[in-house]
Amino acid sequence: MKSILITGAAGDVGTHLRRELAGKYTLLLSDIKPVSNLAAGETFVRGDVAKMSDMLRVTRGVDAIVHLGGFSVEGPWEVILRANIIGCYNLFEAACRNGVKRVLFASSNHATGFYKRDEKIDHRVYPKPDSRYGVSKVFGEQIGSLYADKYGMEVFCMRIGNVTVAPPDKRRLSNWISPRDFARLVAVGIDNPNIGFEIVYGVSGNKRTFYDNSNAHRLGYQPQDDAERYAEEVLAKEKPGDPRAEMYQGGNFVFAEIGGDPNRAAPKFKSAGAAKKGVGRKAAAGAKRPAKPKEPARKKTRGSKKKT
Ligand code: 15L
């Protein structure tokens, strides 16, 4: 049985995945928070993605990694930088040094959230991130591309939509993925022998999809669910949203400074730095960009003359 490391295993997506993959693989679960109720075939190992020493320790000896770890909505730059940029680099570098070839990266639909809802996009479109969070997902994909081309790693990037039991709103009728379809997609990423570097969309077979997911289907993904069976119920409850959110695939992420997922409480930040920079709750509610800090006057240095 293959041994699979899941980072960020304590989160919602990790919890669904553990349940769906039980008995199929041996699971090594890693998170900064403890994972409770370990089932047969599961082991927990604590690890902070932002610490290279932790990533070198947790990635040792596994057959593949599902990298869910990181910050999963919009947040202050310092938070995104640490968890998603540094964290992602550490993960790929540690996997590479430990000889783990296969990495499944939890990218997000927010890597392309600034495409309009009436456009159908495939895995080859130019990224259009809708948030710092979305930018970090593009970074993760590109680190994956580098490690695939330069070091021969096998990298499967999943631009995941919304992994929930049922789609909570209209936008999610287009990007929803059921937990069992997500597990099917992950199994393709782990078991397909012909992965070099791939980008796929992590969505069920939704009638209202934003995506041409033919690359996932080519690699063997066969979703069984469709958000359409929830459409009537979802649309009856739907209230008109912010017009910017309504226009773009990324929804609220296109303007939110914190959070972005209306179904999850906006995270709170204790850090004085984040509050000072205007990225606290007030900024999130007002949807205004925080005021730009004044730039200190630049010192003239040698070589700072404009080149013509
Ligand atoms: C994501 O990337 C988030 O992690 C999740 O909380 C949802 O908001 C999802 O995107 C979505 O777009 O629905």
Could you give a short description of this structure?
The chain is of the alpha/beta class and 308 residues long. Helices cover 33% and strands 14% of the residues. The protein contains eleven helices and nine strands.
Description:
The radius of gyration is 20 Å and the shape is globular. The chain has 308 residues and is of the alpha/beta class. Helices cover 33% and strands 14% of the residues. Helix 3 links the parallel strand 4 and strand 5. The chain has eleven helices and nine strands. The site of D-galactaro-1,5-lactone has 11 residues, from helix 5. D-galactaro-1,5-lactone binds next to helix 5.
In angstroms, what is the radius of gyration?
A: 20 Å
What's the shape? globular
**Uncertain residue segments:** 274-308
Distance between the termini: 62 Å
Kindly state the number of beta strands: 9
The protein's oligomeric status is: single chain
Strand content: 5-15%
Estimated helix fraction: 25-40%
Number of helices: 11
Kindly report the spatial arrangement of strands forming the biggest sheet. 3-2-1-4-5-6-9
Small molecules bound: D-galactaro-1,5-lactone
Element-level helix/strand string? EHEEHEHEHEEHEHEHHHHH
Mean pLDDT: 90
**Structural class by secondary-structure content:** alpha/beta
For the sheet with most strands, the description reads: 7 strands, parallel
